[in-house]
């Protein structure tokens, strides 16, 4: 396998322009002769489907939910970054690029990140034109707020529901194309396998979740926008249905998986409170704009927060990182929360929480101003915990949130399988080892609205595509394989529920491959996962049949893939003998407990190639060259 | 004219017709009540009012035809809406509770409407389609309300009308799009006052006449 | 304070609507849900019940859900006759068991309406709402041609009002709670969202006519201003949006 990033030559700021010019074009009348399959309807998939259809391609779009509007992009709260410099605080494309590269701990590809920063401005324009009701100033111009990891205000937002509003924008554009007949929408479909014909991605096999039918769809190119794999931790801020199955099936078919160990733990989530818990709820990072994070100075201090006087509180982020304070990037904030709790200073019954306090902000700005900014978040917090954050500080704890790793893609967002494009969180491309807040929405929409529409044209125009049909043997064989896998899964009839397996997997991953890893722990976790995989195959209990609406069967397939994927994550984490961003290995840290990178040996993307059942995956390396930024120890002090 | 029928056939169109005709009936009721209040001034005043009304001749006929037309539209649209709403949920809930949005008026709209229709027919037979050459309208009315059964029927009917109007009045504003957070509380307050005025204003007349004799 | 919050476990009797397919007769089945922590969400309670059913070899209860943080709009059921349960402004996934008492009986039914077919148990097909959006719930702005985001300033107040309307999560609770199974709040919210923005005006006439037409075709009932939708909407969307829809419709139809 050759990893060719296809990054164009030339100065950084001209690469994208040059590339656009170099890409082959397809005449508008010919675009309708191409069939494109898009899997996923989040920001990336929804935007891509709509835009490709606008250009004239015939698009078939698939989603697991009952409507394309429900993809998990909808849950993003805080905002979307753009280098508009509307705040006149010295922002620029270059600065957004720099912040993102630095925030990613210098493990992202320069050219991709620069392109992302360039496109960020178009995204805002496009969304405004679609009717996204961004927050505005009294004068009627767009409002901005600041976010973690940046010292400028460049985040556009729609209350605490930015993701929802951007997704509804993409969904409405998609709906328009569905009505126009250019997009054929398939809801409640699980993509279970990828079809390869003559080495190129030529279609997918799906399961209709309502009646269980196994369906094949042929295409000239396949676009995966299936999100991240955060649910490998069982408890995460991801939606219940978010899964790795589609991406993992592409991996099994030859697409390299890049940096799976880069997972982002979000610092501000509602803490875990019981074994029955099914999900963790995120509280937007924007809360750190006004909230102050603290723990008691003395370990074991179990007094209620109101009784702990100011002098006995440790505002550890402000003290340790005076220039960024509470707005340090997510990985830094998360790790510090864990450090404090490990020292026994954690709040609440479990001791696994820190305080996020709004008392000073309310005193300074008044309750109304705070309510206007964060009202819905406070309300959500109160619903879950029955505590009122206006009166007592919130308790928060880090939780699995975002996967920086994903399928490896080149500058065109094409994977190592020709014709298979991967967008959004499902690819690995732009965030390096750690993603900055408000950048996921930016990347999803950049990929969908402004990158794939051009690069896919370049591929289609320059590729010889044979005529194929769903009745061809490649389709039939793949569909048969999927059917037999399902049959096998239903016939295990063990004694443990799928959820129970998932919970155990989550525990292993969180304990050994979570916020803080060690070589020893990872090695142990690998054995545990292999054991769990074995037990699943013998002892899983999946009720019902394959020919019906069977939510447990859906789950079983997803959990089975998560278990295998967990192993890949651990292999990747073990191979990276350094700490960077979301991958923190305690064996590689500075004296101040910060991540210690090893730029000499690990300034690369690790891409893994599937080698077959039970075999260790094959390691490939894409070296990262930094010509425009200087690699420094990331400092937010 | 196709566009016109497309509009009024739609769900909003039918409701708009309910609103416009309903509001017209509210205006009619106001006029009717003001006229009827002359009863308190005595027999002659009431008869004079009736004569004056009848002297309008063709104007009155036009108004009557208008009211009839409106009534047909109101009843027809109401029936269509009722049937449509019935079929919109073929399978009912085993348990359904209100979240506090519904009122007695809104809940009973089609049923109170049906009773109002029956009452209007009854009322017209009693007081409109009677031979008025032999006796004055006052005599007809006082004869009728000498019978406690009539008094009871009319009071009951007026309560039903008031309940119907309590929802219909504000609902009409909402349907034609006149809902503004600033003014809606006033409209809703007015609806209650108006329905009370109609109920009490009309409802007290039979009692007054019954006891006057 | 959570420190002083009493941790409790409660026992419940559930009566759940079971129906194996859209055209099959359904009925309420009784289940026991024991030792339910009051910190659980409603859906976590159902998870626990389902795990028990699976172990017993029985068919688990099918129900739709996804984000479990009240924003995706996937979950929803009638709980004791109330859409998304008894709490105001709350989706089913955000309803917590502390709002129930020991030995309560809870009746759980799916959304019922002609336009929403039951797929299985509590899962329903709400694609009619998508059809309405496809009829006109968009601004025709192809990617690429947009002017600068600040090119058209407009009052913060309209942006806020548009956002109030745009907060709709498309869960269908308005239809489910409406005595007439009407979708006017859903349509009103979308029409209002665009009607309030200058970008939405060029297509306002076409949009409102097309969306209402599709809504009627889908078999939803008619709005009789019962205002149950507003009272049950998990995002507390106001019926002023229905009035705006009416206004837009009349304007579009007659002017």
Question: Would you write up a description of this structure?
Answer:
The complex is a heterotrimer of chains A (637), B (213) and C (255). Chain A has 637 residues and is of the alpha+beta class. Helix content of chain A is 37%, strand content 16%. Chain A is built from 17 helices and 22 strands. In chain A, α3 runs parallel beside α6 and α4 crosses α5. Chain A is globular and about 75 Å long. Chain B has a single domain, classed as Fumarate reductase/succinate dehydrogenase, transmembrane subunit (3 helical TM bundles of succinate and fumarate reductases, Up-down Bundle), CATH 1.20.1300.10. Chain C has two domains: 110 residues, Roll (Ubiquitin-like (UB roll)), CATH 3.10.20.30; 113 residues, Fumarate Reductase Iron-sulfur Protein, Chain B, domain 2 (Orthogonal Bundle). The radius of gyration of chain C is 21 Å and the shape is elongated. Chains A and C meet through α3, α5, α6, α11 and α12 of A and α1, α2 and α3 of C.
Notable characteristics:
heterotrimer; A: about 625 residues; alpha+beta; Flavocytochrome C3, Chain A, domain 1; Methane Monooxygenase Hydroxylase, Chain G, domain 1; 5-stranded parallel sheet; 5-stranded antiparallel sheet; about 35% helix; globular; B: about 210 residues; mainly alpha; 3 helical TM bundles of succinate and fumarate reductases; 8 helices; about 0% strand
């Amino acid at each position: 396998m050759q990893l060719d990033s296809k990054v164009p030559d030339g100065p950084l700021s001209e690469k994208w322009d040059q590339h656009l010019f170099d890409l082959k074009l397809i005449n508008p009348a010919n675009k309708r002769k191409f069939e494109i399959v898009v899997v996923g309807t989040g920001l990336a998939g929804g935007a891509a489907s709509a835009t490709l259809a606008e250009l004239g391609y015939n698009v078939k779009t698939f989603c697991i939910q009952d409507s394309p509007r429900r993809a998990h992009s909808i849950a993003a709260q805080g905002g979307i970054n753009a280098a508009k410099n509307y705040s006149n605080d010295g922002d620029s494309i270059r600065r957004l690029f720099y912040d993102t590269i630095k925030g990613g701990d210098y493990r992202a590809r320069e050219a991709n990140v620069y392109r992302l920063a360039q496109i960020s401005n178009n995204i805002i324009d496009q969304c405004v034109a679609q009717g996204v009701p961004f927050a505005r100033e009294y004068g009627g111009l767009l409002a901005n707020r600041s976010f973690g990891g940046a010292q400028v205000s460049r985040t556009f937002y729609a209350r605490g529901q930015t993701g929802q509003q951007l997704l509804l924008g993409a969904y409405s554009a998609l709906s328009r194309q569905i009505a126009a007949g250019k997009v054929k929408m398939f809801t409640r479909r699980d993509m279970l396998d990828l079809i390869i014909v003559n080495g190129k991605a030529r279609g997918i096999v799906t399961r209709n979740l309502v009646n269980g039918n196994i369906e094949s769809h042929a295409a000239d190119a396949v676009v995966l926008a299936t999100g991240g794999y955060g649910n490998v931790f069982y408890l995460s801020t991801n939606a219940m249905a978010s899964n790795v199955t589609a991406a993992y099936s592409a991996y099994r078919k030859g697409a390299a998986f890049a940096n799976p160990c880069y997972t982002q733990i979000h610092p501000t989530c509602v803490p875990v409170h019981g074994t029955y818990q099914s999900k963790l709820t995120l509280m937007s990072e924007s809360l750190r704009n006004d909230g102050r994070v603290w723990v008691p100075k003395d370990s074991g201090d179990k007094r209620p927060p109101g009784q702990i006087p100011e002098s006995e509180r440790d505002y550890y982020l402000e003290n340790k990182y005076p220039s960024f304070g509470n707005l340090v990037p997510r990985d830094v904030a998360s790790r510090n929360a864990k450090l404090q709790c490990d020292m026994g200073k954690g709040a609440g019954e479990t001791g696994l929480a820190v305080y996020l306090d709004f008392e000073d902000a309310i005193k300074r700005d008044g309750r109304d101003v705070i309510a206007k900014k964060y009202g819905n978040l406070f309300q959500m917090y109160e619903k879950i915990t029955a505590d009122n954050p206006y009166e007592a500080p919130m308790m928060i704890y880090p939780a699995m949130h975002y996967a920086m790793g994903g399928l490896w893609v080149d500058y065109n967002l094409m994977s190592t399988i020709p014709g298979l494009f991967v967008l959004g969180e499902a690819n690995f491309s732009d965030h390096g080892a750690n993603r900055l807040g408000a950048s996921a929405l930016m990347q999803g929409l950049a990929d969908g609205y402004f990158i794939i529409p051009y690069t896919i044209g370049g591929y289609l125009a320059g590729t010889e595509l044979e005529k194929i049909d769903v009745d061809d043997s490649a389709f039939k064989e793949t569909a048969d394989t999927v059917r037999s896998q399902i049959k096998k899964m239903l016939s295990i009839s063990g004694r443990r529920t799928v959820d129970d397996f998932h919970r155990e997997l989550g525990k292993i991953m969180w304990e050994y491959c979570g916020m803080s890893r060690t070589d020893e722990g990872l090695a142990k976790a690998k054995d545990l996962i292999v054991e769990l995989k074995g037990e699943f195959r013998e002892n899983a209990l999946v009720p019902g049949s394959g020919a019906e609406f069977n939510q447990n069967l859906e789950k079983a397939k997803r959990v089975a893939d998560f278990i295998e994927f967990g192993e890949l994550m651990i292999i990747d984490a073990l191979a990276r003998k350094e700490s960077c961003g979301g991958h923190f290995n305690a064996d590689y840290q500075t004296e101040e407990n910060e991540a210690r990178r090893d730029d000499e040996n690990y300034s690369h993307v690790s891409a893994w190639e599937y080698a077959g059942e039970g075999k260790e995956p094959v390691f490939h390396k894409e070296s990262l060259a930094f010509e425009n930024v200087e690699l420094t120890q990331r400092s937010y002090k | 004219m196709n566009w016109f029928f497309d509009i009024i056939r739609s769900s909003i169109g039918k409701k708009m017709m309910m609103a416009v005709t309903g509001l017209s009936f509210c205006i009619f009721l106001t006029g009717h009540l003001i006229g009827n209040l002359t009863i308190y001034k005595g027999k002659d005043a009431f008869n004079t009012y009736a004569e004056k009304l009848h002297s309008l001749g063709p104007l009155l006929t036009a108004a009557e035809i208008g009211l009839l037309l409106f009534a047909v539209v109101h009843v027809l649209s109401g029936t269509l809406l009722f049937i449509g709403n019935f079929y919109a949920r073929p399978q009912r809930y085993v348990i359904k509770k209100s979240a506090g949005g519904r009122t007695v008026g809104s809940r009973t709209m089609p049923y109170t409407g049906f009773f109002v229709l029956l009452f209007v027919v009854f009322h017209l037979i009693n007081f409109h389609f009677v031979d008025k050459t032999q006796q004055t309208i006052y005599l007809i009315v006082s004869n009728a309300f000498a019978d406690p059964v009539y008094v009871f029927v009319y009071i009951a009917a007026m309560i039903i009308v008031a309940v119907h109007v309590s929802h219909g009045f504000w609902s009409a504003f909402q349907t034609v799009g006149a809902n503004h957070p600033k003014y809606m509380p006033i409209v809703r307050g007015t609806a209650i006052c108006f329905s009370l005025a109609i109920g009490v204003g009309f409802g007290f007349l039979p009692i007054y006449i019954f006891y006057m004799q | 304070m959570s420190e002083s919050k009493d941790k409790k476990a409660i026992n419940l009797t559930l009566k759940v609507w079971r129906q194996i397919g859209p055209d099959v007769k359904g009925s309420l089945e009784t289940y026991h849900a024991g030792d339910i922590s009051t910190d659980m969400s409603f859906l976590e309670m159902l998870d626990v019940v389902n795990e028990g059913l699976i172990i017993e070899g029985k068919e688990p209860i099918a129900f739709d859900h996804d984000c479990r943080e009240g924003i995706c709009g996937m979950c929803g059921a009638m709980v004791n006759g109330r859409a998304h349960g008894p709490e105001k402004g709350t989706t089913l996934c955000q309803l917590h068991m502390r709002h129930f008492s020991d030995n309560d009986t809870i009746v759980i039914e799916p959304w019922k309406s002609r336009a929403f077919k039951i797929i299985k148990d509590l899962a329903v097909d709400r694609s009619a709402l998508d059809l309405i959006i496809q009829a006109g719930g968009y601004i025709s702005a192809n990617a690429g041609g947009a002017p600068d985001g600040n090119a058209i300033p407009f009052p913060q107040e309209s942006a806020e009002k548009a956002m109030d309307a745009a907060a709709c999560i498309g869960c269908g609770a308005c239809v489910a709670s409406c005595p007439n199974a009407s979708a006017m709040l859903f349509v009103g919210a979308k029409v209002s969202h665009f009607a309030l923005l200058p970008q939405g005006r060029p297509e306002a006439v076409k949009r409102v006519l097309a969306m209402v037409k599709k809504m009627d075709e889908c078999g939803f009932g008619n709005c009789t201003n019962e205002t149950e939708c507003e009272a049950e909407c998990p995002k507390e969307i106001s019926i002023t949006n229905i009035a705006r829809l009416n206004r837009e419709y009349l304007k579009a139809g007659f002017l």
